[in-house]
Amino acid sequence: MTPIIRIKPSDISFDVIENTTVLESAIRAGIILEHSCKNGSCGLCESKIIKGEVIDEQGCSFSSGQSFLTCQCKSACAELTIEAEYYPELASLSRKTVPCKVTWAEIDNEFMILKFRLPPTAKFDYLPGQYINLSYQGVARSYSIANASSKDGIELHVRLVNNGAMSNLLLAGIKPDTLMRIDGPIGTFFIRDDDRPIIFLAGGTGFAPVKAMVEALISSSSKRDINIYWGMNKAIDFYSKLPSEWEGKYDNITFIPVVSGNDVEWSGRTGFVHQAVLQDFCNLSDFCVYACGSPQMIAAAKDDFINIGLSEKQFFSDAFTVSK
After folding, report:
1. What is the edge-to-edge ordering of all strands in the sheet holding 46-51?
2. CATH number for the domain whose boundaries are 198-319
3. What superfamily would CATH give domain 96-186?
4. Each residue of 138-158: pLDDT tens digit?
5. Nearest Cα to Cα of residue 316 among 69, 85, 124, 156
6. 292 with 280: CB under 8 angstroms?
7. What superkingdom heads the lineage (predicted)?
8. Do residues 248 and 277 lie in contact, with contact meaning Cβ atoms separated by under 8 Å?
9. Helix crossing, 207-219 with 242-249: angle to 10°?
């Protein structure tokens, strides 16, 4: 008898794949559970065991009543029941690998904007906020998709890492028609169907999925209040003028850039980007928050926002981990 994993409260189940994590078994069964980094860094896939047992890579076991990371643990029993979020919105999206060719590459200080075209026959659907794996010359890295729809191709925002494997390849001279591959879509970061006002919190290239989601909201003529907080170390690092343009064009969009480093020429908001939100709002009980950036930023923001009334179920995030 094949071991199964049951998900509550949705009461759906799927077969365990031998020597495969709970998360990967679910994904292969077409059941998308909440996740982001898949390496244990972000903690987004944390779930609670209702019945059964799991074992992590170090051989540590977790049983009923304990929490664990679905991306790091395998089922150790015939039937495992866990409490986890299941996203039917993602069930119809099939992950695939497709070739792509560079149409645009632009460097702005430490950042590069890349645009790709896909083959005419490629049907690459995703929800704004999701990410892909980009592969080039044997190197693969994860990047959020920065545009709302693939009808005009795929846009990525890349932070250039000193001596980074992918960064070095890109800096060596990416030209139009350079062939790469993308694998996706991946992740559970997308806009939930709701009427609540939104706070977008972005650190660095965490602006990429925010851009895609805001574009989608604008395209749908959404009237939701949209507050965009974008944090950078220096003012010169803000590589896009779009947020300011949106604020000038749409009454429901507000943009707050925040600089965390010592920038004597910057006269705007300073400090950690999530602290600017705390300065502007004393109660977040009516809001939802979408945060994208470092795991440290996301963890600090979640704790502090919940302390001023934000529902934990209204905090959605995607953590960026830097790869060399």
Report:
1. 12-15, 4-8, 79-83, 46-51, 67-69
2. 3.40.50.80
3. Translation factors (2.40.30.10)
4. 999 999 999 999 988 999 999
5. 85
6. no
7. Bacteria
8. no
9. 30
Radius of gyration of the chain (CA): 20
Tens digits of residue pLDDT in 175-204? 999 999 999 998 899 999 999 999 999 999
Q: Rounded to whole angstroms, how far apart are CA atoms 128 and 150?
A: 10
Instruction: Give ranges for CATH 3.10.20.30 in the chain.
Output: 4-90
**Pick from 246, 249, 269: which is nearest to 259 by CA?**
269
- Residue 254: both structure tokens together: 């507000």
Structure tokens at 235: 């003012």
pLDDT digit string (tens) for 249-295? 999 999 999 999 988 889 999 999 999 999 999 999 999 999 999 99
Nearest to 187 by CA among 68, 320, 307: 320
Q: 168-203 in b/e burial notation, b at 16+ Cβ within 10 A?
A: ebbeeebeeebebebebbbbbbbbeeeebebbbbbb
Q: Which residues contact 305 (CB under 8 A, 6 or more apart)?
A: 274, 277, 278, 284, 289, 315
Query: Could you tell me if 305 and 289 are in contact, meaning their C-beta atoms sit under 8 angstroms apart?
Result: yes
Which residue in this structure is represented by tokens 């009808």?
151
